[in-house]
Write a structure and sequence with these properties.
By secondary structure, the protein is α/β, with parallel strands linked by helices. Helices cover 53% and strands 6% of the residues. A hairpin with a 4-residue loop joins β13 and β14. Pfam families: HECT.
Length: 1200
């Protein structure tokens, strides 16, 4: 037989012959381990030594587990969620293993766990599901065991601390802010007879002597209750004695009563009861008399200490502390009765509240020797939480109060407390964050609106630096220190944020504002802003792909709508001045022109981290336009951030900035946060930078730096989108992180990937305007055949990259994907409509009208299907030839040439002969918008069929096909002269208002001039140096977007009938032109020769073939295009080369023999087969003459 003793996981085995029974207890009196050994036969000392060693091992393990537990769940269990109580979690097992009732920290953790448990049950209403998930029956053994252990632990904890808790044991649920009530209420919750484990719990409690523990708890509470009754009797007797001595109105009181040898204050403070109105009125009278005595003598210290403060300071300090706290308690308890008096001034001293508040001002004066002692005592005794409730009660009446320069008495109380803590030297003991002035008072909604004088003192005396630094030291647990929310619209953190920001701007403007103050301010506000709800997208933000992920499932939350005034307070505080001052202070020691190649020092890292953390969160919470303009044009943010990132990149050592956001860890890439700020600001800057600044002056970054920037952006984007996509969760802080935190980290990754994509796309546009780096610099190194094969499959990661960052993939690869998409679409259409064909007769001299009348009637499905054309010549005779595709190609080339001809009036040309919609088209064609819809369809049909057409469009119009907005730097392609005028205005150093310009623009179409306002009332708004940038933007927007918006919109609708938006979104405007027209370079004869077949006796080395290629190579570009049209029906070759010509070009021998009659024939073609029928000419000259005649004969398809 073996006997077993279990002590917190340690098992001792004792042999039967030892027959030793060991009982171990912790002696409460002296804390030593008391071992009581009952020896039945012989005590085995070896067994005892093993037991001691086992307990030592267990304590070590408990200590390690406690540290691990706190690192995971937080010191206040702030990381705890409802899943922690489930059967699959180790939370309860770990806690119950290391819990020690003697350890006050463990006890407080248990109290917090009980509070959270009550909260989770209240939210779900099902305690069984909380502990057992969805399957109690199969997990009942484990669940019952854990609940039994937890219940018994709560009882043991209350029992061990019963003397400390004696005043709380008989309180009710209303006093849940105490320590005992949460534990006792959890017992009520878990022993409910309706629960399936109820009998098991009660039985276990009985076996473990829990009822004896409960008995001792009850007796302790009962003793306390009896003690209170005795105290009340004594207080009543003392009150009677007090009144008999000093009078009911203290009329017998003199100044000596406050001295150290008098029992007056001791007696009064002993019997005073804030609930007793008579006691309260006595206190008011005492305060009046105290003020009178001080006013007479002018020395409050002498009043309380007589002539010897130093020797009596302990007693004096104690009495003053008690008296001050009593005054605060009295006002707090009667705050609703006094609510109309709380914000009155000293002039209304005949009220009840003012004497008490003025005595507080008198006794907390920072000049007094006990000042630090008083303020420390107030903090420890939760006095600031009482003051908070007093202020909240009185502030609703603030509008009815008359403003005074000295402020209300309550404001004066806060001022002396504030001034004391901020003054040096200060010997106040460290403050518990929960009960601190910062948490309790600074989080009151609109504090500065109620107490404007306090705001000035707080800001101008530099006190904000003390409190902001104090809160910075509490990060990341600041949220746990804040009081409960007043309402959903006024959450405490947001009220604190608004108050800090409102005075933060004043603090930053002080000449003595330090670097550390700016860092602390940025850190605290960043932390609070992380919880700030994002605004709706109707706030005037830039057109961006960035959008907040919708939360679904159990993380779905109701939309948070903050109070309008609170939103306004926060947004108004982060104004131009605030941003300029913050960035100036943080960056004043760092130059954008720093030529050092060394990695950044700690101070620079702190500055960049503080700025980027702050700006990152406000980018996602506040309207962007105002913020971006300030950061882009009035700070050195872009060059300084680039200088920092460049040195980190070159040294291949990125500093961790993870502490700047609560949901990042040290594993997060060091470039993640800087890029989240740099990219949108630089992108905004590039919208107004002109060509001279960018290319010639190289502002704000040199072209060399931009090349390095492209490399950095490309590598970072590839890392985010491809390399790290599957391992992104590793960068989230360790431990059981909530889904919301994971979503936040994923959101910043997505946000950064989008802003990097947008900036790279913009830099590619600048490179297309004037090349300063190789186009291949935008291509990712990791793009291979496997990636391309995945990119064509919907919903793959490669496909998502293709949509978001197509420039990472070479153009040829994207063009192949595009052609495969078109081929698949044509194949789908062909399989659905095998027998449907539309055959049109088109008169060559009325090609546009006939095509419009017939094709406009077709449905989208018909447009995607085969269309066959028969041409009718000028004599009304149908031309020879059967349309196998070649005639349709010829038709498409001719109709596009006619429809887009500027003579027709629908399109105009730029100075570079590039096409764009005619703003005055409505003056020429009544149905001009219908025609634009048709032309969009026509262009889309050409692209859908893979037919290249000679239509050189202006870049700003091609942007419309991608539904992009055009900006100032697109204007030179439309109106170079207007662009020069606007740039002149932008750089004009004089007074622009003297130029007599207004916010109007003159339209001049076909000799008819009209004046149009750029803004409502624009004809009365003069252009000045302050609004000239807005004027320039509006003029460019009018010319590039507004004037042609209707024409572009109808064209786009027609275009998108056949070409999906996502098909062309993977191309920039320059590449889109290549898809439409192919390369502008000369026809590649060598490529055509390499992909040519031969028939009828010809082969690649035949002398006629050799002559043919020599002749073709010598043709002019125009003749080469005519030749290509002669043999294929289209004057332009396939986009990706002649290997993609279907079918391949073929040269067939014509005439059979070399007779004179055969050699006199002209070459003929079959365009549907891409076939050239070439007679065997004897000489090179004859071949050239005949071929030139044939391709330039303009004989329709009569030579086919």
């Amino acid at each position: 037989m073996k006997m077993e003793i279990r002590e917190v996981g340690v098992e001792l085995e004792m042999k039967e012959e030892d027959r030793v029974k060991v009982k171990m207890e912790n002696k409460e009196e002296d804390g030593w381990l008391r071992v009581v050994v009952e020896i039945f036969l012989i005590a085995d000392l070896t067994t005892l030594r093993k037991c001691f060693r086992g307990r030592k091992v267990v304590r070590t393990e408990q200590s390690k587990l406690r540290e691990k537990f706190l690192s995971i769940y937080g010191e206040n269990c702030q990381n705890l969620d409802r899943n922690a109580f489930g059967p699959d979690s180790d939370f309860l097992r770990q806690f119950l293993y290391f819990f020690n009732a003697e350890n006050i920290d463990d006890f407080l953790i248990l109290v917090q766990i009980c509070r959270l448990l009550q909260q989770f049950v209240q939210e779900s209403g099902d305690v069984v599901q909380l502990f057992a998930a969805e399957d109690y029956l199969s997990r009942c053994a484990l669940v019952n065991y854990r609940v039994k252990q937890f219940v018994y632990t709560c009882i043991r904890a209350v029992h061990h601390n019963r003397y400390y808790l004696k005043d709380q044991l008989l309180l009710t649920l209303k006093e849940s802010n105490t320590s005992a009530i949460p534990l006792l209420e959890v017992l009520v919750l878990l022993i409910d007879p309706k629960l399936p484990w109820s009998c098991k719990i009660v039985s276990s409690l009985s076996k473990n002597s829990a009822f004896s523990l409960l008995r001792e708890i009850i007796l302790t509470g009962k003793k306390c209750f009896r003690g209170r009754k005795v105290v009340r009797t004594e207080q009543s007797k003392l009150r009677e004695k007090f009144l008999s001595i000093y009078g009911e109105n203290c009329q017998n009181l003199d100044r000596n009563a406050f001295g150290p040898d008098s029992d007056f204050l001791r007696q009064f403070l002993y019997f005073f009861n804030a609930e007793n109105i008579d006691d309260f009125l006595i206190l008011v009278q005492i305060c009046r008399l105290l003020q009178q005595f001080v006013q007479e003598s002018g020395d409050v210290v002498q009043l309380f200490a007589a002539e010897d403060y130093l020797s009596r300071c302990a007693l004096v300090n104690y009495r003053v502390k008690q008296f001050v706290y009593t005054c605060i308690r009295a006002v707090h308890h009667n705050r609703y009765y006094l609510k109309d008096q709380l914000l009155l001034t000293l002039k209304e001293s005949n009220t009840s509240a003012i004497p008490l508040l003025e005595v507080l001002v008198l006794l907390i004066d920072p000049k007094l020797p006990w000042s630090c002692k008083i303020v420390s005592s107030l903090s420890k005794n939760s006095a600031f939480s009482l003051l908070r409730e007093i202020i909240l009660t009185g502030k609703d009446n603030a509008e009815n109060c008359i403003y005074s320069e000295k402020g209300s008495s309550l404001e004066r109380v806060l001022t002396v407390v504030t001034c004391h803590i901020g003054q040096k030297p200060c010997i106040c003991s460290p403050t518990d964050p929960v009960y601190s002035f910062s948490s309790q008072i600074l989080s009151i909604p609109f504090l500065w609106h109620v107490f404007p004088n306090l705001k000035q003192v707080f800001a101008k005396q530099g006190l904000g630096q003390h409190y902001v630094h104090q809160m910075a030291t509490w990060l990341p647990n600041l949220m746990n220190s804040l009081p409960n929310d007043i309402s959903d619209e006024l959450p405490t953190y947001a009220c604190l944020l608004g108050n800090i920001l409102e005075t933060g701007g004043i603090a930053l403007s002080r000449p003595d504002c330090s670097f550390d103050m700016a860092v602390d301010l940025a850190s605290v506000t960043t932390f609070l802003l992380e919880s700030y709800p994002s605004p709706t997208r109707s706030d005037g933000r830039e057109n961006s792909k960035i959008a907040d992920d919708e939360m679904t499932g159990e993380d779905e939350v109701m939309e948070v709508v903050l109070d309008g005034k609170l939103n306004q307070q926060i947004s108004n505080a982060i104004d131009t001045r605030f941003l300029l001052q913050l960035t100036t202070i943080l960056f004043r020691d760092f130059s954008s022109a720093n030529g050092s190649d060394r990695e950044p020092e700690d101070k620079e890292v702190a500055a960049v981290g503080a700025v980027c953390g702050f700006l990152h969160v406000i980018f996602n919470t506040l309207p962007l336009e105002k913020i971006m303009t300030v950061l882009a044009y009035r700070t050195e943010l872009v060059p300084i951030l680039w200088n920092f990132m460049k040195r980190c990149h070159e040294n291949k050592k990125w500093s961790s900035l993870s502490e700047r956001l609560s949901y990042l860890s040290g594993d997060a890439p060091g470039w993640l946060l800087p890029l989240s700020v740099f990219c949108p600001v630089y992108k905004h800057m590039l919208m107004i930078v002109d060509n001279e600044e960018y290319y010639e002056q190289e502002k704000p970054l040199s072209l060399k730096d931009i090349k390095s920037l492209i490399t950095l952006l490309r590598q970072a984007l590839w890392q985010l989108l491809w390399v790290n996509h599957t391992t992104s969760a590793n960068s989230v802080k360790s431990g059981p992180v909530s889904t919301a935190v994971k979503k936040q980290f994923e959101a910043i990754q997505q946000r950064v990937s989008i802003v990097v994509s947008e900036l790279l796309s913009q830099l590619q546009d600048w490179n297309n305007r004037r090349q300063f780096t190789s186009p291949s610099d935008f291509h990712a190194d990791g793009v291979n055949d496997y990636f391309i094969s995945q990119a064509v499959i919907e919903n793959t990661r490669a496909n998502e990259i293709l949509k978001q960052a197509p420039f990472l993939i070479p153009f040829t690869s994207r063009a192949k994907i595009f052609t495969s998409q078109l081929a698949a679409a044509r194949q789908r259409q062909g399989s659905q409509a095998v027998f449907t064909r539309n055959r049109f007769k088109i008169r060559r001299n009325h090609i546009l009208e006939d095509a419009y009348n017939q094709m406009s009637q077709l449905s989208e499905d018909d447009l995607r299907g085969l269309i066959r054309v028969a041409f009718v010549n000028e004599f009304g005779v149908e031309e020879a030839g059967i349309d196998g595709g070649g005639i349709f190609k010829d038709f498409m080339e001719n109709i596009t040439r006619a429809a887009f001809d500027v003579q027709y009036g629908l399109f105009k040309e730029t100075a570079d002969h590039l096409l764009y919609p005619n703003p005055g088209s409505g003056m020429i064609h009544e149905q001009h918008l219908q025609f634009f819809h048709f032309l969009g369809t026509l262009l889309a049909k050409a692209m859908f069929e893979g037919i290249l057409v000679d239509l050189p469009f202006a870049t700003f119009f091609l942007s419309k096909l991608k539904q992009k907005h055009n900006y100032l730097n697109d204007l030179p392609s439309l109106d170079p002269e207007l662009y020069r005028h606007l740039i002149f205005l932008k750089h004009y150093e004089g007074d622009i208002s003297e130029l007599e310009l207004y916010f109007v623009i003159v339209n001049n179409e076909y000799g008819e001039q009209t004046e149009e306002e750029l803004l409502p009332g624009g004809k009365n708004i003069r252009v000045t140096n302050e609004n000239v940038i807005t004027f320039i933007h509006l003029v460019a927007n009018h010319r590039l977007n507004f004037q042609i918006r209707q024409q572009s919109s109808h064209f786009l609708r027609g275009f998108q009938q056949l070409i999906q938006k996502d098909w062309i979104d993977m191309f920039n405007e320059h590449e889109l032109q290549l898809l439409i027209s192919g390369s502008l370079d000369s026809l590649d004869v060598d490529d055509l020769r390499q992909h040519t077949n031969y028939a009828g006796g010809y082969h690649s080395e035949h002398y006629v073939i050799e002559m043919f290629w020599e002749v073709l190579k010598g043709f002019s570009l125009e003749n080469k295009k005519n030749f290509l049209k002669f043999v294929t029906g289209c004057s332009r070759g396939p986009l990706l080369g002649f290997r993609y010509l279907e079918p391949l070009f073929c040269i067939q021998r014509a005439g059979g023999n070399a007779s004179e009659e055969a050699l006199d024939r002209l070459p003929t073609s079959a365009t549907c087969m891409n076939l050239l029928k070439l007679p065997p000419y004897k000489s090179k000259e004859q071949l050239e003459t005949k071929l030139l005649y044939a391709i330039n004969a303009d004989a329709g398809f009569d030579l086919s």
